[in-house]
Amino acid sequence: MANKTNRRNSSYLTYPYIVCNLNKLRDNLAALTERCQIYNVSIVGVIKGFNGIAEIAKVYDGKVDYIASSRLEQLNVIKELNLQTPLMCIRISMPSEVDELVRICQISLQSDPSVIKLINEAAKKQGIIHKIILMADIGDLREGFWNKDHIFEEALKIENEYDNLYLAGVGTNLGCYGSIVATPEKLQELVDIKDEIEKRINRKIDIVSGGGSSSLLTLLDKKIPKGINELRLGESVLMGLGTWGLDLDYLHDDVFELWTQVVEVETKPSFPVGQRGVDAFGNVVEYEDIGIHTRAIVSIGKLDYGNDPFALKTFDKNIKVLGASSDHTILDVTNAKEPTKVGDIIKFKISYSNLIYLTNTNTVRLIVRD
Ligand SMILES: *Cc1c(COP(=O)(O)O)cnc(C)c1O
């Protein structure tokens, strides 16, 4: 039984569990590394999807260029492990965390000149050189310089004025806020920015970081522009590309399983009986009347996995998620392959949107299989 970071230990052992199969994770990482190598693209292993849990993060050591997270708390735990792989922070930094940033990470993504100045000062105080990847916003409208002249100016400044920073590269982010697709044309814009910076600082830069798992689709489609040489992969390594509608036979979608226990099985109507108001969260909900059916309740809810019970996928496709409140999830088990009874364990595949919650709560235990 592994302890997750940043959470209280549970004194007793009970459901629900997450089961993480490290060998399946290794398979996914190897399969994607092999495919990225064809295009000279290296992988940054993004561990925020499972809250940076050390036992799982260790799988990435020595197999990726950097281990990365958006959260310094997670990277700090990894730093204590003294792994061989350097650490990257992929959320642009708060002014209040620059000292911790340069203490914990060798490299970070940045987009604000005033913060970059503070990072230089923090690195100077600690007597180290911190590497910077300058983020360019090419349309997704999350982080990144919008004005190209500003990113060129900042690159020159890092190169010439900041003694404790090293301009390691440029990067971008797509498919996050603005749902912008990583088309070859979009990614070429980033390569063009790199080319112009190289001209202005009169040397080559090492890294052109072309986004996360959504950019991997373009690579697998053989359309990644020459010059993109790094992808920061989280979800695709952890669960394949199902979110993007791709079911690839060489990627496991069940690295993580959720095991829950049944606490009630009853034959009930499917349509609520009585005068209807709002649900546990104040929402007006529409219910479908499919007649009398057999319903099971498992002891897990939105407190554990976030707001989306319908992202849970049962291994038995005949079991359907009907809905959930904070602590209960209701299933239609009328057509389940095996009759369901109290005490049974019902297993689910975990989607990324649930995993970030499930790995960050002390109400769900974790079993790591190696
Ligand atoms: C989360 C994140 C990633 C990884 O995204 P996935 O879609 O999980 O591959 C990459 N870059 C940044 C900046 C991120 O915040």
Binned, the helix content reads: 25-40%
CATH superfamily of the largest domain: Alanine racemase
Which blocks of ≥5 consecutive residues have pLDDT under 50?
3-8
How much is the average pLDDT?
95
Report the count of strand segments. 16
Question: How many whole angstroms does the radius of gyration measure?
Answer: 23 Å
Task: Count the DSSP helices.
Answer: 11
Protein name: Alanine racemase domain protein
Cofactor: pyridoxal 5'-phosphate
InterPro entries: Ala_racemase, Ala_racemase_N, PLP-binding_barrel
Domain Alanine racemase N-terminal: 21-237
If you had to describe this structure to a student in words, what would you say it looks like?
This protein has helices at residues 22-37, 54-57, 72-80, 98-104, 113-126, 148-160, 184-201, 213-220, 235-239, 302-305, 352-358; strands spanning 17-21, 42-46, 66-69, 87-89, 107-110, 130-135, 165-171, 207-209, 230-233, 256-269, 292-298, 313-314, 320-324, 329-332, 345-349, 365-369. It is an alpha/beta fold and 370 residues long. It folds into two domains: 22-243, TIM Barrel (Alpha-Beta Barrel); 256-368, Beta Barrel (Lyase, Ornithine Decarboxylase, Chain A, domain 1), CATH 2.40.37. The strands form two sheets. Strands 1, 10, 11, 12, 13, 14, 15 and 16 form an eight-stranded mixed sheet that branches. It has an eight-stranded parallel sheet with strand order 8-7-6-5-4-3-2-9. Strand 6, helix 6 (148-160) and strand 7 (165-171) form a beta-alpha-beta unit. It starts with 16 loop residues before the first strand and ends with a strand. The protein binds pyridoxal-5'-phosphate. Pyridoxal-5'-phosphate (PLP) binds next to strand 9 and helix 9.
